[in-house]
Design brief:
Length: 321
């Protein structure tokens, strides 16, 4: 099994210079599932909290790869708009380069918070306005290679779509204007619950950090079923034990035991180097939430690609999104 996932405990020793998506070649091909994971704002470089889901899937599907998207995942340096735009282009390049070099390859995508916004752009098209208007990936490429798109707490969430999962009835704070390109992807799911500050424009900051804990095993099972359907495989589709961790505040504490030493590599968007590590025990980062309901306090206006007029309280809140 090949992996590029790493825990915060070993991340510092494994980090290597970020490799460009252009470095993906036929040597990057795997017989299993190629999983791209985009972390939330200010989570430590690496796959973030949703990487735990991808890791469990990699335990079931032999010769799979978990790739942490290499992008800023910031709110102010660079600005959220620029970070999302950078991540969108990087993810699209990673997927396109992998499928170009691996014509039989199967891909799954996971995104949390800002990472979900990035992934939504890749498959639905960019938001426009203060954000770039990137074209979505070609439908034929997606139909041929992508078996699952899993989004959690997407700030660009649109309520009542065909791919919505959860209790939310409201749009996100960066509601996307058009979902035509992605609304019929049966393998795309966007998890958003009532009260989420970002995807539901709500006021309950705790909701945003709860998706892996509440839906993680369901997602694992769904992706494994999608793999079997796409490949004729027969992997066990049980989602496993509930994930005990949750993203909250400035720290994401997500203990996940593994049974033996596993391979880990640097947290970049391509394979860099591997190192044997012992049992993984925790994943730390920030990907939770903070602050109160943004409501009308979101003073956003587009000046080129800039977001201006956000109150200091909102800046503090979004910095831990």
């Amino acid at each position: 099994m090949r992996r590029s996932i790493t825990t915060a405990a070993v991340a510092a020793s494994l980090l290597a210079p970020a490799a460009s998506a252009q470095d993906i070649t036929s040597k990057s091909c795997v017989n299993g599932l190629f999983m791209v994971v985009a972390r939330g704002t200010n989570e430590q470089p690496g796959p973030g909290v949703t990487g735990l889901i991808a890791e469990r899937i990699a335990d079931r599907i032999k010769d799979s790869d978990v790739v942490a998207l290499d992008y800023p995942a910031t709110y102010t340096d660079p600005l959220y708009t620029e970070s999302v735009d950078d991540g969108t282009k990087e993810m699209a390049s990673v997927i396109k380069n992998y499928t170009d070099n691996c014509p039989d390859g199967k891909v799954a995508v996971f995104g949390y918070s800002q990472g979900a916004h990035v992934a939504s752009n890749v498959f639905c098209g960019g938001n426009g306005g203060a954000f770039d208007s990137d074209a979505p990936l070609p439908k034929q490429l997606v139909d041929d290679h992508v078996i699952s798109i899993e989004l959690f707490g997407d700030p660009s969430h649109v309520a009542n779509t065909t791919y919505d999962i959860g209790t939310s009835k409201n749009d996100g704070i960066f509601q996307r204007p058009n979902i035509t390109a992605c609304e019929n992807y049966s393998f795309m799911k966007s998890y958003c619950d009532t009260g989420d500050v970002f995807c539901d424009s709500g006021s309950n900051s705790a909701v945003h950090g709860s998706y892996v804990q509440h839906y993680g095993t369901e997602v694992v099972s769904n992706v494994l079923k999608a793999w079997n359907k796409a490949t004729g495989g027969d992997v066990d589709t049980d989602g496993g034990a509930p994930f005990p961790g949750r993203a909250s505040g400035n720290v994401t504490s997500t203990p996940e035991a593994t049974s033996s030493a596993t391979k880990s590599t640097a947290a970049t968007s391509t394979q860099t180097r591997t190192q044997e590590t012992g049992t993984q025990t925790s994943e730390s980062g920030s990907g939770g939430s903070g602050g109160d309901k943004p409501g009308a306090a979101i003073g956003l206006s587009a000046v080129g690609s800039l977001v201006v007029g956000a109150p200091l309280m909102l800046l503090a809140m979004l910095s831990v999104m």
